[in-house]
Amino acid sequence: MRYLPKSPAEREQMLAAIGAHAIDELFASIPAVYRLQRDLDIPRQQAESEIIGYFKAAGQKNATDYASFLGAGAYRHHRPVVIDAMVQRGEFLTSYTPYQAEITQGTLQAIFEFQTMIAELTGMDVANASMYDGSTGAAEAVLMAARITGRHKTVVARSVHPEYREVLATYLRFREMPVSEVGYVAATGRVDLAALEAAVTEETAAVLIQSPNFFGTIEDVAAIAEIAHRKGALLIVTIAEAVSLGVVKPPVEADIVAMEAQSFGVALSYGGPFCGVLATKEQYLRQIPGRLAGQTVDANGYRGFVLTLSTREQHIRREKATSNICTNQALVALMATIFLTVYGKEGIRELAEHNLAKAHYTAKALAAAPGAKLLFEGAPRFHEFVLKTDELPEAWQKRLFDEKIVGGVDLGRWYPELAGATLWCTTEVVTREQIDTAAKTLAAVPVEA
Amino acid sequence: MATAPNTTIGKVRPHQTQNEGLIFEKSSPGKRGYMLPPLDVPAVDAAALLGDAHRTVPAGLPELSEIEIVRHFTRLSTWNYAIDLGMYPLGSCTMKYNPRVNEFVARIDGLAEAHPYRPEALAQGALEVLDLLQKCLIEITGMDAITLQPAAGAHGEFTGILLVRAWHQSQGNPRKKVLIPDSAHGTNPATAAICGYQVENLKSNSDGGIDLEALERQVDEDTAALMLTNPSTLGVFESQIGRIAEILHAKGALLYMDGANMNALVGKVRPGDFGVDVMHLNLHKTFSTPHGGGGPGSGPVACKAFLEPFLPTPVLVQSENGAKRWDYDRPQTVGRVRAFYGNTGMFIRALAYILANGPDGLRQTTEDAVLNANYIRAKLEDLYELPHKTPSMHEVVFSDKRQAAQGVKTGDIAKRLIDYGFHPYTVSFPMIVHGALMIEPTESESLEELDLFIDAMRSIAREVEETPELVKSAPNSTRVARLDEVTAARKPVLRWRQRT
Question: Which of A125, A239, B395, B415 could disulfide-link to B235, CB 3.0 to 4.6 Å?
């Protein structure tokens, strides 16, 4: 086996040093009745070329050559190649969690830079080292708000990503922490403020919204914050499309921001690994879950970084920890850090503006098709929009497939009232030609004979 | 004893590393590391389109050119220790070689660029990869069903205990407590607590294993499950495992296995065959996906058939025509534990590892991991106290008893190992061993590297006798000396700020 660095003679030599005659003596503590007396029934050992062949074939079955207008919490952006070049350095890739600070300053400084960038982007004071993804980050933010407020109820907007809401329900279901949902205004797709006002009470720990929300609409964060804060609840804003922060005002009125940073240079990879992160105000720092890198000095006075405030964490606090999270998404956070360094202050704005322009153009082009119209026109949006067509989506989706285009995703699977309406996303990687083809194909409604 | 620059100690001779400031300190306005293609649609007025929602103050991100970015992160990387540089004997962490072909195949276009909501007809390749991995992991664990959704080990524990809870609830009573041995990882009690269970501590017996009498006393109708790590965190296989399962099952309680130490078992014995009802795996331990400085991980949960109805949605199924699809219609599900389907990039890597090994390779891997740990034990037990003489599997736990008599603690010995070119072992864990040195070499170490490690440990034991201050002040050869963690926690500085 090519990964195992021992010759048969060396194995014999080591057994002799141990005083064993055969390797199975070292497994004698496993009762014989349980020992596996056969080979595992899995594919045989394969050469590197065979492995590559297998995965290439799988990739091809996935149909790679389609243009895509899919978003909905996972976004395709150009990933600068230096990201992969850097994260494939073995010193980053094959390093452990930086508990031994003297020999992991590289990872620690990079986390510190990540935390700074996320705080800058979100308008919060501090950010953690990462969470699993946006959905679990949002759920952990709700638990954090409950610890801070000593309350146990949550109000969540229906315009939050449906899968984020499902995850939240899973996290809360055994804790006797009720969740109520607040609908959206039909004209704008934004949170129904009157309904929110009615739903938030003195028992509400957190109001959870998403902005830009699942329909691509930007919420009135200030107005929502006022409603939440008036009753002493915290406002959590989750952001699924991090690139929006290049051009959309950060949710500074929020108490906690739960963000998915996948858009910052992370491959779609059929849904993961992505990179959640929590950012918050200084005063809530000690209730934040997950790892934190902090600046300090060494015995000689040099600047250095360590994992800090670990008394919040499970390896110290056990059942009293803020969360059970241990491993997070460090390497993915590094990808995001490099992405943000490549684009920088000006680039992130320019990139976001390109996305805004492409989506604006797409929305107009698609809505021009006969029987098509945009929903939620009454509010600003970033690069996603909802399209309603007279023709059933299955019909035009099929025409688009023939043109090697994947159109928007049907919202009916999550919002019965929006069945037949589709959520579209255009990022900077979609070309005008692809947009025009999609519009033309959508408009080509077959004439009934 | 200052080390002269050209002096070798252990397997290292110091070399240059370059200083590098924070990325923000290197920024200057107007520098760029990117270029966007010309906008091929009409430009828009963002301020007009967004109104009040328009961002007017840009985020304080750095501005640098590409070469500076490459140098910055390359320089930072050189400050890290890594498996690619040498042995990483962290007990319980299974720091094994991360094959490069795994990285290559995870980046194949059709897989890396697949959107999670692409129509299933256009995602059959990804689904086939997931399906094959599921089948392999089910066979390896001897369980009946699996979910790949959990993002890491602790997330898998959460999912597994939710399954336990949902099943008990379906029997009419979710029960109140989860038993956890005092040797367990901190994630176990933290998990039980977030699933709404009381944590009841189970004291280990003198061998560091499960005390059957205590177990029998403590398991009652309120007990939902025992969370057991097997082999234990002492690296010892619970040879009474059959009896443990019986005691639990007799009272209707379930056996949860923390699969952190699965590297000692693969191909030799299957948890499903020794009474485990539900368990998680750590793909970033046993199945070679890289730790990446702390993630991403992946924590699939495998279970017996009676728990299958409760698995998180969606579940991968096969249609009659052979096509694979996601099934969302699962009335008894515990719900989703994360968005989409899990860390697919890690699934691809883990499957590549399994394919590279095959059944014979996986078994040999386990045997070598156990051989390595026992070799270290045999070569060090004359100098380091071995508190439990029970046979070791893939890791060995010493204590610092003899060295502590000289005022040198396990943490000091660990730091001194750095000067010899090794990452420290796991320090002061498990907690049932006072001053623990927990050593897990994995299968990835050659005899040469093991002997260098053994030499280093023996040399340090001598230093403890002769020059204890040298050990207590270690590391002496790193870029930074021991860091002031107290100040870091007392006055947290968690971000850079522009000086005003």
Answer: B395
Q: Given A52, A247, A431, which is nearest B46 (Cβ)? A: A247
The torsion angles phi and psi of A45, rounded to 5 degrees, stand at -55, 135
Q: Is the pLDDT of residue B2 over 80?
A: no
**CB-CB: which of A56, A271, A352 is closest to B340?**
A271
Is the same domain home to B129 and B246? Answer: yes
- Position B1 scores a pLDDT of 47
- Does a structural domain hold residue B391? yes
Superfamily, domain A67-78+344-443: Aspartate Aminotransferase, domain 1 (3.90.1150.10)
The nearest CA of chain B is from the CA of A231 a distance in Å of: 25
Q: Which residue has the tokens 């966007």?
A: B36
- Shortest CA gap B470–chain A (Å): 15
User: Looking at the structure, do residues B382 and B412 belong to the same domain, yes or no?
Assistant: yes
ipTM confidence: 0.97
pLDDT at A449: 52
Residue B98 pLDDT class (50, 70, 90 cuts): very high
Residues 244-283 of A with CB under 8 A from B: 245-250, 267-273
- Asked whether residue B386 carries a pLDDT value surpassing 80, the answer given is yes
Q: How confident is the model at residue B5 (pLDDT cuts 50, 70, 90)?
A: low
What's the mean per-residue pLDDT of chain A? Answer: 96
Residues B319 and B412 in one domain: no
Contacts of B266 in chain A (CB under 8 A): 40
B160: enclosing H helix or E strand: helix B153-170
Does B208 score more than 90 pLDDT? no
**Upper half-sphere CA count for residue B416 (Cβ side, 13 Å):** 26
Point out the residue among A14, A80, A270 whose CB comes nearest to the CB of B34: A80
The model's pTM is: 0.97
Domain contains B1: no
CATH of domain A81-340: 3.40.640.10
| B372 and B349 fall within a common domain | no
Closest Cβ–Cβ partner in B354, B375, B493 for A14: B375
The confidence score (pLDDT) of residue A323 equals: 85
Q: Does residue B482 lie in a domain region?
A: no
Rounded Cα gap, residues A219 and A1, in angstroms: 56
Determine whether the interchain pair A10/B192 forms a contact, defined as Cβ–Cβ distance below 8 Å.
no
What is the span of the domain harbouring residue B454? Answer: 368-477
* Position B186 in a domain: yes
pLDDT of residue B499: 78
Q: What is the number of other CB atoms lying within 10 angstroms of the CB of residue A152?
A: 15
Q: Are residues B395 and B447 in the same domain?
A: yes
User: Nearest-CA distance from A106 to chain B in Å?
Assistant: 4
Residues 183-212 of A with CB under 8 A from B: none
CB atoms within 10 A of CB A263: 27
B164 close to B301: Cβ distance less than 8 angstroms: no
Question: Based on the domain organization, do B374 and B273 belong to the same domain?
Answer: no
The pLDDT tens digits of the residues spanning B57-96 come to 999 999 999 999 999 999 999 999 999 999 999 999 999 9
On whether any CB of chain B is under 8 Å from the CB of A355, the answer is no
- Whether the Cβ atoms of residue A216 and residue A381 lie closer than 8 Å to each other: yes
Query: Using an 8 Å Cβ cutoff, are A344 and B56 in contact?
Result: no
What mean pLDDT is predicted for residues A351-377?
97
The pLDDT mean for chain B works out to: 96
> What whole-number distance in Å separates Cα of residue A227 and Cα of residue A35?
62
Taking an 8 Å cut-off on Cβ atoms, the answer to whether A328 and B174 are in contact is: no
One domain, residues B420 and B330:
no
Helix (H, G, I), strand (E, B) or coil at A11: helix
What CATH number has the domain bearing residue B386? Answer: 3.90.1150.10
Which residues of chain B have a CB within 8 Å of the CB of A51? 101, 105, 352, 355-356
Flag whether pLDDT at B437 surpasses 50. yes
Read off φ and ψ for residue B456, nearest 5 degrees. Answer: -65, -45
Interface of A with B in 318-347 (CB under 8 A): 318-321, 323-332, 334, 338, 340-347
Domain boundaries, chain A: 8-58, 67-78+344-443, 81-340
Nearest to A167 among B105, B336, B359 (CB): B336
Rounded mean pLDDT of B35-40? 98
Considering the domain architecture, whether residues B215 and B346 belong to the same structural domain is answered as yes
Q: Please tell me the total count of domains within chain B.
A: 2
